[in-house]
Fold this protein.
Amino acid sequence: MSYEYLALLAAACWAFGSLLSAQAATHLGAFAFTRYRMLIAMSLLWLLSLLSGSWQTLASAQVLLLVLSGAIGIFIGDTALFAAMNRLGPRRAGVLFATHALFSVLLAYFFLGETLWGLTLVGGSLLVGGVMIAIAFGKRKEEQHQWESSQQGLKIGIALALLSALCQAVSTLMLKPLMVQGLDAIAGSAVRMSTGFALHLLVWLLGWRIAKSYLPLTPKIFGYVFINASLSMVLGMTLILQALKSGDAGMVALFSSVSPVLILPMLWLVYRRRPAWGAWAGAVLTVAGIALLIR
């Protein structure tokens, strides 16, 4: 399967996984939810790696770079995004986080020599623009989050959201040379996930209030967390690493950034909530951009 479809499948996994995460994240709290799903994802990835023997292919130099990538992308990036959401609300934070695709393209140009020209550049611009429009105008006024009316901490929130996007781009860029070298995607994901979990566990052990669970973990909530971890962090991240083996880092980032658009029809099917006009407009632009890129 080509890298374009691998990245799109990863975006679909993230979209469906996030659909199941709302109740669990509200029940446990963002940090506790992330810690539990990282533990599950890490356990599944190491199990798969042990069964396949792929862990034996890891070299010490690769492990160090994977640990650094996990610390930047999974721990710092996710933490900054949650903090941004607390100040801006999910919609505004989501629009700013969507710039990670632009950061990826720029960083890939300067550090990997990847370029976008002609219709590819037009397609990439349509895709990113479509995603941002779908997030920014995809909800009706009555559906907007209560935090979105607040202007307190606006500058800090914007800075945190952009930091999260930059961390996501940097961590992806760091993985490209490793995947070209033939790094096993499952083993690589296991190391990155272990790093993120270890750092989140450290925050919890230090007794930080924000890391504590709001409510106890119940079987139902555990089921939601397990499905989310399996789809988003195990399958989704493994597909992204596999896509990086044959695709440019910037292109993979562009295709994988469409998850906010893919979740719109899922919300319609599950909650019978018809998307607003901005969602339709953004979806049309995103599909047009994907069509130009795949050609």
Summary: Confidence is low (pLDDT under 50) at residues 145-149. Residues 3-124+149-257 form one domain. The longest helix spans residues 60-88.
